[in-house]
Amino acid sequence: MAAVEDDRIARISSAIRVIPNFPKPGIMFQDITTLLLDPKAFKDTIDLFVERYKDKNISVVAGMEARGFIFGPPIALAIGAKFVPMRKPKKLPGEVISEEYSLEYGTDKLEMHVGAVQAGERALIVDDLIATGGTLCAGIRLLERVGAEIVECACLIGLAELKGRDRLGGKPLFILVSAA
After folding, report:
1. Looking at the domain 56-178, which fold is it?
2. Quick one: pLDDT band at residue 2, thresholds 50, 70, 90?
3. pLDDT band, residue 10 (cuts 50/70/90)
4. Which member of 67, 87, 111, 165 is catalytic?
5. CA distances, 145 to each of 35, 75, 120, 142 (Å)
6. How far does Cα 166 stand from its chain's mean position?
7. Is the CB of residue 122 less than 8 Å from the CB of residue 151?
8. What's the whole-model pTM score?
9. Is 67 a catalytic residue?
10. Which of 58, 83, 114, 135 lies 20 to 30 Å (CA to CA) from residue 154?
11. Pick the catalytic residue: 17, 100, 104, 145?
12. Active-site residue flag, 104
């Protein structure tokens, strides 16, 4: 099994395009659109997450806007969980709770519908990438405010040098591929 997994990880990693100096000089942008163009690598990505979470009694998959919306729904469907979108301000039509988080320059907010998650539900948070961890931290705080138990945070890509894992307050983090 390990050899198969290694093949899948290598295929996933090679399907992610790196674009230097985007959106600004010095940034090595991890472009997942090329992964999405490769059905085998995209399926491998979803399969690896599903294999990890299918027997963990998870009832909520929370996806971060916007690329968490790509990976979260197929994972949720495959493990029999509901998908809860966590969105930027003023994008959800119903009553919301919000959580502010820090960006490199300034702050942003993440919102979730009131009533989407119940106290005691077991939640998985999904995003495409962890950098500084600000977005994931906001998602953790939103879910904990309504009494959910965070099973793990799952990201396709990890930028280890930005130390986002250190900001998660000890919450488990699973990363499929580390960016070079």
Report:
1. Rossmann fold (3.40.50)
2. low
3. very high
4. 67
5. 34, 24, 11, 5
6. 16
7. yes
8. 0.95
9. yes
10. 114
11. 104
12. yes
